TrEMBL record:
Coiled coil: none annotated. Keywords: Repeat, WD repeat. It comes from Mauremys mutica (yellowpond turtle). This is Serine/threonine-protein phosphatase 2A 55 kDa regulatory subunit B. Gene3D superfamilies: YVTN repeat-like/Quinoprotein amine dehydrogenase (2.130.10.10). Belongs to the phosphatase 2A regulatory subunit B family. SUPFAM superfamilies: WD40 repeat-like. It comes from the Eukaryota. InterPro entries: PP2A_PR55, PP2A_PR55_CS, WD40/YVTN_repeat-like_dom_sf, WD40_repeat_dom_sf, WD40_rpt.
Length: 449
């Protein structure tokens, strides 16, 4: 357990509080947040949006004068990661939207992260500069070249202090390897390779080689009319560099071992839960599609998110999950209208806390859900501007399905399906969470801090 975690549901999950208001990224379609990711220390938090921008927030350092400011995140760097493009061969527009961000462990003073849109992965270096060189021989102070005949003495350049500047520079561009839209990137535990996955293929890249990748999974049939499923998410094992999983639109998970074969079309393990015939409906296939898959930090479990549930699988048990959590089962009667407004195709993500004891995932009406794996208790919290005062304690919310509605409950018919929490992140070692609600980023921390 994380130190200071306390009795989880009683002391923490009921009592997450706002760190400092809401961070409003903007107001247009391009400002909608499309991914959120803490780095390995939790000191930095990156968001990507539909406009192709990456915004990095840095955690405030603790000071004796203002100890309560510890935990606040302020803007550290903003840069344009991707631009809109046009594929003239296929007559297709390629959106600039950032689909995923993944951090690399910090090796020196600089930070490195991967960002991807539908087609291109980029490796970015984010570094600080607080000194500038002065006293060039061939250039004047404005950077203009001097007349060599006027140079009569040799000067030794010196470094002068300057205001801190954060620079983001693209170090590698990994392009032209995906026919379909990239839905996942995952850094390997060897930190030399990473993989990118689209609907039908998964490619393995070396960080040093941009012009070629190795295809490790290809599920494209010879005849596209025979296509029955697509890849929806993929992730490397946190400790074993040869192992990875990928999920499918059929609700299945495949564990692959790269030692067994160069092309991992044959899986090592196949995880699937038999369908209950009594729950069979027109929407069964759609809602069973897995939108996210995550290894636990320990590497022992896999968590998957489908439309209505979060499931935890033990790597040693393939026939059924060991835990199933209902996220918003009250929507089961609303599937027809959710199909008509396309909400049934929303791709919710899920995250573990640092000790793998709590699961978090999003829902509608700006609700997000937490499940304690030890006590089996759960809570629904809301990220909204109404309760976004700094230090305000979040109050649990309840959804009423029918009958009399209590004062603090909200009717299932009153839920706003345009407000949805698709992307969340949990600090790797502390009870700090980041929740993206449309174009707002909410950061909450537990009251113990």
């Amino acid at each position: 357990m994380i130190p200071g975690f306390g009795n989880l549901m009683q002391d923490v999950l009921w009592c997450f509080s706002q760190v400092k208001g809401t961070i409003d990224i903007g107001v247009t379609e391009a400002d909608i947040i499309s991914t959120v990711e803490f780095n390995h220390t939790g000191e930095l938090l990156a968001t990507g949006d539909k406009g192709g921008r990456v915004v990095i927030f840095q955690r405030e350092q603790e000071s004796k004068n203002q100890p309560h400011r510890r935990g606040e995140y302020n803007v550290y760097s903003t840069f344009q990661s991707h631009e809109p493009e046009f594929d003239y061969l296929k007559s297709l527009e390629i959106e600039e939207k950032i689909n995923k961000i993944r951090w690399l462990p910090q090796q020196n003073a600089a930070y490195f992260l991967l960002s991807t849109n539908d087609k291109t992965v980029k490796l970015w270096k984010v570094s600080e500069r607080d000194k500038r060189p002065e006293g060039y021989n061939l250039k004047d102070e404005d950077g203009r070249l001097r007349d060599p005949s006027m140079i009569t003495m040799l000067r030794v350049p010196v470094l002068r202090p300057m205001d801190l500047m954060v620079e983001a520079t693209p170090r590698r561009v990994f392009a032209n390897a995906h026919t379909y839209h990239i839905n996942s990137i995952s850094v390997n535990s060897d930190y030399e390779t990473y993989m990118s996955a689209d609907d039908l293929r998964i490619n393995l890249w070396n960080f040093e080689i941009t012009n070629q990748s190795f295809n490790i999974v290809d599920i494209k049939p010879a005849n596209m009319e025979e296509l029955t499923e697509v890849i929806t998410a993929a992730e490397f094992h946190p400790h074993h560099c040869n192992t990875f999983v990928y999920s499918s639109s059929k609700g299945t998970i495949r564990l692959c071992d790269m030692r067994a074969s160069a092309l991992c079309d044959r899986h090592s393990k196949f995880f699937e839960e038999p369908e209950d015939p009594s729950n069979r409906s027109f929407f069964s296939e759609i809602i069973s599609s897995i939108s996210d898959v995550k290894f636990s930090h320990s590497g022992r479990y896999i968590m998957t998110r489908d439309y209505l549930t979060v499931k935890v699988w033990d790597l040693n048990m393939e026939n059924r999950p060991i835990e199933t959590y209902q996220v918003h089962d009250y929507l089961r009667s609303k599937l027809c209208s959710l199909y008509e407004n396309d909400c049934i195709f929303d791709k919710f993500e899920c995250v573990w806390n640092g000790s793998d004891s709590v699961i978090m995932t999003g829902s509608y009406n700006n609700f997000f859900r937490m499940f304690d794996r030890n006590t089996k208790r759960d809570v629904t919290l809301e990220a909204s501007r109404e309760n976004s005062k700094p230090r305000a304690i979040l109050k649990p919310r309840k959804v009423c399905v029918g009958g009399k509605r209590r004062k603090d409950e909200i009717s299932v018919d009153s839920l706003d399906f345009s407000k949805k929490i698709l992307h969340t992140a949990w600090h790797p070692s502390e009870n700090i969470i980041a929740v993206a609600a449309t174009n707002n980023l909410y950061i909450f921390q537990d009251k113990v801090n």
